[in-house]
Amino acid sequence: GLGDVYKRQEYNGIYYPVSNNKTFAKIFPEQHKLIKRYARKHKLNFRHDADASLIALTNFCEELIDQKQTR
Asked: pLDDT digits over 13-71, tens only?
């Protein structure tokens, strides 16, 4: 609908449509469960604050990727 939140997240040069935590998690299938758990724990809600939710999830995923690369 008209009220739907729609953002785009760039990852590896590809832009993905993001409208909620679930569509964001699809970009990172290996971390899907961790992303969902993080979003729930931090009460992220795209409908109420899409920018803050997108920033928080992006930062979280960058931390996960950095941890993976330093192992």
From this structure: 888 888 899 999 999 898 899 999 999 999 999 889 989 999 999 999 999 888 888 87
Whether 15 and 6 have beta carbons less than 8 Å apart is answered as no
> 5-43: b or e for each residue (b if 16 or more CB lie within 10 Å)?
bebebeeeeeeeebebbeebbebbeebeeebeebbeeee
Cα separation, 18 vs 51, in Å, equals 11
pTM (2 decimals)? 0.81
Helix (H) or strand (E) holding 9: strand 7-11
| Residues whose CB is less than 8 angstroms from the CB of residue 58 and which lie 6 or more positions away in sequence, other chains included | 9
